[in-house]
Amino acid sequence: MEVLKIATAGSVDDGKSTLIGRILYDTKSLTTDKLEAIEKTSKQRGYDYLDFSLATDGLVAEREQGITIDVAHIYFSTNKKSYIIADTPGHVEYTRNMVTGASTSQASIILIDARKGVIEQTNRHFFINNLLRIKDVVVAINKMDLVDYSEEVYNKIKADFEELMSKRDYQDQKITFIPVSALKGDNVVHKSENTPWYKGEALLEHLEQLDKADIYNVGTPRFPVQYVIRPKTEDFHDFRGYAGKVYGGNLSVGDDVIVLPSKTRSKIKDIYFYNEKYETASRRSSVTITLEDDINVSRGDMIVKENDLPTIDKQFTANVCWMDAEHLKPGTKYVVQHGVNKVLAKVDRINYKIHPDYSGVENNVTELKVNDIASVTFKLNKPIFYDQFKNHRTNGSFILIDSQSNNTVGAGFIQ
Amino acid sequence: MKKDTSNINSLENEAIYIMREVAAQFERPVLLFSGGKDSITLVRLAVKAFYPAKVPFPLMHIDTGHNFPETIEFRDRLVEELGLELIVRNVQDSIDEGKVKEETGRYASRNQLQTTTLLDAIEEFKFDACIGGARRDEEKARAKERIFSVRDDFGQWDEKNQRPELFDMLNGQIDLGQNVRVFPISNWTELDVWSYIEKEKIEIPSIYFAHKRKVFLRDGMIWSADDEVVYRDDHEEVVEELVRFRTVGDMSCTAAVLSEATTISKVVEEIRESTISERGARIDDKRSEAAMEKRKQQGYF
Q1: Which one of A65, A133, A285, A395 makes the best mutation probe of the B interface by having the most chain B beta carbons within 10 Å?
Q2: Domain presence at residue B199
Q3: Chain A interface includes B48 (CB < 8 A)
């Protein structure tokens, strides 16, 4: 059984939490005690229906205000797949949560209120999904029950959204439109009789048939060294293993490799996973590698295949999503965490700010405010080994850390 | 080929990655060990992450004094077999020192009191990272928890001001006096943990399997009848039932479930078909709708 991570995006009151609650309910993922708690609270509040959003809105402040203010993770499974849904809030000020949720997801759902259609927020949600190169996006046109399940309304929204799609950067992104009512359960888990004009699948049916292998971007193998294992015991006296996760492609015993930044050549001797040896380590497996030669390798170094080098440079330009209340300004220093590697970086210049509602870019920008997205050039105190984000999701992304507050203040996608 | 195809493999790969980040980013990490199945799973993951080297951090158990005797026995054996370092700190000592006051009455439990003992121990050993077995599927407030979750000098969780976690990148930078709670099995569900225990043939305490026990019924839940630890009214009649525990906390806050599952595969089967959530058997969560969130803000796991 495989696991599929899905991000969700929608504006306030678009019914996102209700949709997730509905999926949980219709897949019988809500346990009796949770369901009883929802029934009890719904009744207390005088609703004449079950408020499924109560299943996901976890924090007291959220229940008080009836909104979602932080990323919540919801788990359920069918016979075919395990699902993790990142429930991310939709307000303008919470762009950072949406980027966060989308960064670990392979698919996403964008919600649109059928009564309101494509609004500025929708542009923003789509922009972020496209920026993060989510391969499979579902546009769920919700609250169809409130527009009498009108095909005309659905078609109008679809046409408006398709206009947005023509402006997107990542054209290969797959978009699927589904008319739903989360409250009534139409086309969420089961196909609805209320929309006979809709020939596609229900939302869950669509997610069930997504092929995970298809969704992941496959690139070239990158092995950032996380931790050096030196047991110094009698049995493993000279053992020197490099622990890390394989990204992008497979690594095999006998591969000719280069260790960066020293550019030392060697061969992969053994691949360990716990006490077993393997011929090949596949993408995303956490293994320990030993090399034929006794060379100096430490955390933050990267092992790559000889004929497949990343860019090695002391500067780069990236799309940055700024997440901190303090503004980003040229000349300021930050820590760039690129995978497990950390370097000091200085903001060289802000090239232009991107309006995530697809209304163009803005030049001559002097600073970035929270939730701004911009192209920024950085200079580093030592080289890093990177790929463009469009070719390598992991090796093309980084976070910015404020060395005063230690907070994660931004995320970047290398251009 | 070492593959990452099935759900359980990818969860294992993720958890091992997190364990290694802890060892690399922190100076004094510790693994908080409760004797429950989740922390036993963590120990297994830590052993696998650093093989053939030893686990580079100690285990710490905050002993409430109300643990099931089977748990303590199991803990000591595990530590010895794996050659791990174990630190034990007792809630009884915090009570004796007058730092916390024992609860009284029908629902008295030491569950809340352990927060003080834990925070004191973190300060005593200057631990900068505490690895715990909390999972996001357990409870609503935990669903919002980060993998690296920063706590201030008072051990408090500021849920509205959490660091965003992007891709695989974990930011463990903190100031002196702060610490990070680390949750390597955040993304595991109860069933995942059991499937892993089955797959890895991990030994767990006997109370997780069906056994005969003296119990009594209260509020529709099955309580362990241990009069030294669990308060019981005279009219609450003790009966013997075939039960097992689905989650193991203190005797005073963990309810049993009727079960005939005597092997891991039968337990897995039972959970698959269960309609009650795991924490549904936790008496401490029933105190109010936001019980867990409040405890977390104070420094509880």
Answers
A1: A285
A2: no
A3: yes
Q: Are residues B216 and B138 in the same domain?
A: no
Give the start-to-end residue ranges of the domains of chain A.
2-215, 222-305, 311-414
Do B128 and B236 fall within a single domain?
A: no
Kindly state the tokens that stand for B255. 């309810």
Q: Please write down the HEC assignment for all residues of chain A.
A: CEEEEEEEECCCCCCHHHHHHHHHHHCCCCCHHHHHHHHHHHHHCCCCCCCHHHHCCCCHHHHHHCCCCCCEEEEEECCCEEEEEEECCCCHHHHHHHHHHHHCCCEEEEEEECCCCCCHHHHHHHHHHHHCCCCEEEEEEECHHHHCCCHHHHHHHHHHHHHHHCCCCCCCCEEEEEECECCCCECCCECCCCCCCCCCCCHHHHHHCCCHHHHCCCCCCEEEEEEEECCCCCCCCCCCEEEEECECCCEECCCEEEEECCCEEEEEEEEEECCEEECEECCCCEEEEEECCCCCCCCCCEEEECCCCCEEEEEEEEEEEECCCCCECCCCEEEEEECCEEEEEEEEEEEEEECCCCCCEECCCCCECCCCEEEEEEEEEEEEEECCCCCCCCCCEEEEECCCCCCEEEEEEEC
Full residue range of the structural domain in which residue B26 is found:
7-193+290-297
pTM: 0.91
Instruction: Report ipTM for this prediction.
Output: 0.90
- In the block, which residue shows the tokens 């959003």? A53
Q: A311-414 — its CATH code?
A: 2.40.30.10
CA distance B42 to chain A (A): 14
Token digits for A363?
């030049």
Min Cα separation B292/chain A (Å): 10
Q: What is the pLDDT of residues A128-179, one digit of tens each?
A: 999 999 989 999 999 999 999 999 999 999 999 999 999 999 999 999 999 9
The CATH homologous superfamily of the domain defined by A222-305: Translation factors (2.40.30.10)
Burial of A235: CB neighbours in 10 Å, binned 0-12, 13-18, 19+: exposed
- Among the partner-chain residues A32, A232, A337, the one whose CB lies closest to the CB of B276 is A32
Spatial CA neighbour of B236 closest among B226, B244, B245: B226
The minimum CA-CA distance between B274 and chain A, rounded to whole Å, is 8
- Chosen CATH of A2-215 out of 3.20.20.70, 3.40.50.300, 3.60.15.10, 3.55.50.30: 3.40.50.300
Residue B250 sits in the same domain as residue B216: yes
Q: Are B52 and A239 within 8 A, CB to CB?
A: yes
Q: How many domains does chain B have?
A: 2
Q: Coil, helix or strand for B143? A: helix
Best of B45, B51, B283 to substitute, by most chain A Cβ atoms within 10 angstroms, is B51
Q: Within a 13 Å sphere around the CA of B283, how many CA atoms are in the beta-carbon half?
A: 27
Residue B243 clears pLDDT 90, i.e. is over it? yes
Bridge partners, residue A333, by sequence? A346
**Least confident window among A31-45, A120-134, A397-411, B107-121:** A31-45
